[in-house]
Amino acid sequence: MTQAPANEKPEAWTIQRLLAWTADWLARAGSNTARVDAELLLGHVLSKSRLHLLLNFDQPVQGDELAAYKQLIRRRARREPVAYIIGRKGFHDIEVTVSPAVLVPRPETETLVDFAAAYLQDTSAVAGPILDLCTGSGCIALALVRDMEKTGGAREVWATDISAAALDVARGNAVDQARPIFVAQGDLFQALPQGLRFAALVSNPPYVTTADLQTLEPDVRQFEPRLALDGGTDGLDVVRRIVAGAPDWLLPGGLIALEVGSRVQAVAVCSLCEAVGFVHVRPTQVVGSKTYVVTAVLGG
Ligand SMILES: C[S@@+](CC[C@H](N)C(=O)[O-])C[C@H]1O[C@@H](n2cnc3c(N)ncnc32)[C@H](O)[C@@H]1O
Prior knowledge:
Mean pLDDT: 96
Number of helices: 13
Strand order of the largest sheet: 5-4-3-6-7-9-8
Number of domains: 2
Helix content: 40-55%
Bound molecules: S-adenosylmethionine
Number of strands: 9
Shape: elongated
CATH class of the largest domain: Alpha Beta
C-alpha cells in the first residue's frame, strides 16, 4: 500500500478504498476472483458480512484490523485459497470448516448433491442409509443431512475417507452442525462394516489425470491435497474401483451418483456402470462447468 509524502496527511483507508486497492493488487497477483477475495478477507477480519461492507463503504479501517488484513491479503497474493485463510467455505445450504487437509468444496459439487437429494426425495426411492465415499470435509454428507431436515426425510448417513486428517475435519463439521453422521476411515469400501447396504452412494472422488495436475492453477496445485485430486493416468483409478465395488454395497434400486471431470470420463463411467448391472445410466454436464455427474440405479 502506497504511503503519502511526509508533509501530507495520509488518505484514510476506508472500506471502499481498501477493497478497490486490494482487488487491483490481487488481480495483478493472478487471482481470478480478486474482488470477492478482498471482500471475504476484509469481512473476516472485521467479522462482518459482505453486505455490511457494501453498505458501509465510508467506514475507516485502521490499527490492528488494518494490520491483520494486510497479513491475510499477502497470503492470498501467494495464491493460498481464501477458504484456507479464513477456514470456512459455503456449500449448498450449509457452511463447513476447511483446512489444507481437505479439498475446498466446489460449487459444481452442489449439483451432485442436488441429484442425490432429488432421488432421495422421490417416493419411489429405496429405503436405507446413504454413503458419501471420499468425503473430505464432509460437505456432501452434511448437505444431504441438511436437505433431509428441510424435506422431512431421515436416513443414516455414512462418510468415509482414506485420510485421517480429512476425517477429523468432517467429524468436526458434523459436531459443529449437530448433524450426526457415521464417519469411517479406510480405502473406499474397506472403511465400512460388512453387511451394510445403502440406498444411495454419492461420491466426488479424485479424478484429475496425473498429467493435468501440473496445469492446474497454483491455488489448487500448491495448496490442495494431491490425494484429493490425483486420479491416475486417465483420472479414473478411484472411480473404477468405486463402480466395481458398488453393486456389493447398494440395495437393488439404489442410486450411484458420481462427479467426474470431463465428457470423456463421463462416457467411460457410464460404460463401467452398465457393465456391472446399473440401469438408467445418465451423464449430465454441470451447468457452466466441464464436470459431469453420472447417475445410475442398480438393477435387479
Ligand atoms: C475430490 S476430494 C472430495 C472431497 C469432498 N467430497 C468434496 O466434494 O469436497 C476426494 C477425497 O477422496 C479421498 N480419497 C482419495 N483416495 C481415496 C481412497 N482410496 N479411499 C477413500 N478416500 C479417498 C481424499 O482424501 C479426498 O478427501
